[in-house]
Design brief:
By secondary structure, the chain is of the alpha+beta class. Strands 1, 2, 3, 4, 5 and 6 form a six-stranded mixed sheet that branches. α3 crosses α4. The radius of gyration is 29 Å and the shape is elongated.
Amino acid sequence: PLSRVIGLPLPRLRGISGQLARENAMRNPKRTAATASALMIGVGLVTFITIFAASTKASFGDTLDRAFTGDFIATSGTSGVGGVSPEFTEQVSALPEIGAVGGVRAGLAEIDGDSDQLLGVSPEAFGIYDVDPVAGSPDDLDTTSIAVMKDVADDKGLEIGDTVPVEFMATGREDMTVRLILERNPGVENEWL
């Protein structure tokens, strides 16, 4: 009876399809309720995914705004796989309208026995990214040194001058010297630089 009353305007509003919908709901209300439930779950799931995606995008943008002080980022568009060549960085930095250019590259290495992502950062990048040194200086970094986040340094008992074994796929093992300890910046997810 409830389906008959609620569906009363359907034939007038939707014609024959409205009449069929009303008769179907009156004939089998359980099936109609199951279909409506599935539809509500689907709409709820789509809404959740949309909100999650918007939140993630806003969070990433906020993190980038806090960590990155430059005006532009040039990427290869491959979502972390590959990248632009170092020559591109040199060419851009030679342009007279550019104030500073810094290169950042990512790769995998075995660091102190654990597989981890390692960032390779040019000295100029420290002028573009907002980092908070706890000990040492970005100026102390070279090709044989490494920077580490403070929480990792505390966990592993590392201090400036300590060596960390790093196993690179291409070149093998190298003992890198800790020259910089950074406070964890919300824009830098890596533990090692």
